[in-house]
Structures are given as structure tokens and as C-alpha cells.
Write a structure and sequence with these properties.
39% of the residues lie in helices and 25% in strands. The chain is an alpha/beta fold. It has a seven-stranded mixed sheet. It has a five-stranded mixed sheet with strand order 8-7-9-6-10. The radius of gyration is 19 Å and the shape is elongated. The two termini are 29 Å apart.
Amino acid sequence: MRTAFFAAASVGAMILLSHGFAVKAAEIKIIAAGPLTAAFNELGPQFERDTGHKLVTRLAATSVVKREIDAGDTFDLAISSTSGIDDWIKEGKIVAATRAAVAYAGLGVGVRAGALKPDIGSVEASKRALLKAKSVAHGAESASAASFKGLLERLGIAEEMKPKLKPMGLGAHYKSVASGDVEIVVAVVPGIVAAPGVELVGPFPSELQTYISFTAGVSTGAKEPEAAQALIKFLASPAAVAVIKAKGMEPGTP
């Protein structure tokens, strides 16, 4: 899926300078992890209006982002799992000095809009809710897949849950729950919050969480490195942080 954010208008030089952004408009090519979709849908147009820059954003599952960058796909800015960004820095694909923590999120449960919400308020309640569910959708290649597997192992129900699990591609696991084909979905909280027809039950208790963190970095081959760094600064601004929180994430690192 390719999402492009188009600039609505330019603003005066005084506004640009007050935010510390470059005056020259640029097209910034971004590769970003899927859980950031909702935040980018709101923040992208804001950034474009404030700067005159245009964002061309590729949003995909974390593993897909990794494959594309490893295969040599060109980009200005990557926002992906922290481990992935760190690996690309070691490989010389991302400028180490531009590395910046953006946000982190935990795993949660979602149900079809209007459906009865199970109790996941404690470790035991979460265990009961998962065992009671007839079917559980989750991302097949998302960063949350490994986290969910670890959660099931910590609960001691990994084998019991295998027949119920429905791994699916990006977006398909949410659609399956919204349509009623699958009972619940387990994914990162911002993904559930953004999914049409799906309601967030809540995050799993902290004892079960493995938080997924997302970090930004500018490509060593970036055509627009200054504009990319301006976007990183924007994502740390108070206005952006408020949106990040509203979309089910926390700024910085866990």
C-alpha cells in the first residue's frame, strides 16, 4: 500500500523559521512501519502545510520494510523497529547521527465494533479470554507477531492456541474481525485504534508486554536529507506528540 500526503498550502517564512524547517520545498520518500499509519495520516498533512514539503510514504509491515531496505530500495527516511534501524546503521545504510526514537507501543486486543469486550485486565483474565476465543487474528509478518508468540509462551498456552490462530497480511487481520469472520485480533494498540470496524478492548497487562519501539533514521543515500531531518524534529514537537498519544502510542522509548 502506498500512501501519499499532498501539501495543501505553503506558509510564510516566519512560520517556517519558527519551526526550524527549511524553506525550500522537497519531496521526501519515507518507508515506515504499518502501526504508524494512523499517526501519519494526521501528522503528514500538518507537516506538509507547515513546510511546503511533500511526503511520499510507503507504509508496510516491519518485516516488509526490512526486506525492501535490505534489497536496496531507495528512501530519504526510514521509521521502523529500533533493532532494524540499528542494523541498518551498522550496515552503512542509515546515518548514525540522525537516529531518533519516535514512539513505542504495546500489544492489545480488538473486537468487532459493538461486540462484547472480554476482560483482559489481569494476567489470568487475559489467559482466560484468549482460551475462550474461538479464533484469534494476528499479523503474519508484523513486529507484533514475535511479541504475541512470546506472550502465549509466558502464559503457557502456546500449544493450546495454535488451532485458533489466524496469521494474516497487513490489514487483513483487522478486516477479518470487522467482518465477524474472526472473533478477536491481537496487534499493536495503534493498529487496532486505526482499524475501521474494530474497537480496542485494551492493552495487555504490563506483566505480559513486550513493547515495540519505532525509531527514525535518514538514509546515507538520501536525496533530501535536510527535509528528512526536519520531519524527525517535527515528530518530536508537542503537537506531534499529542497525536502520537491519541493514536495509542507513547513518545520516546519504553
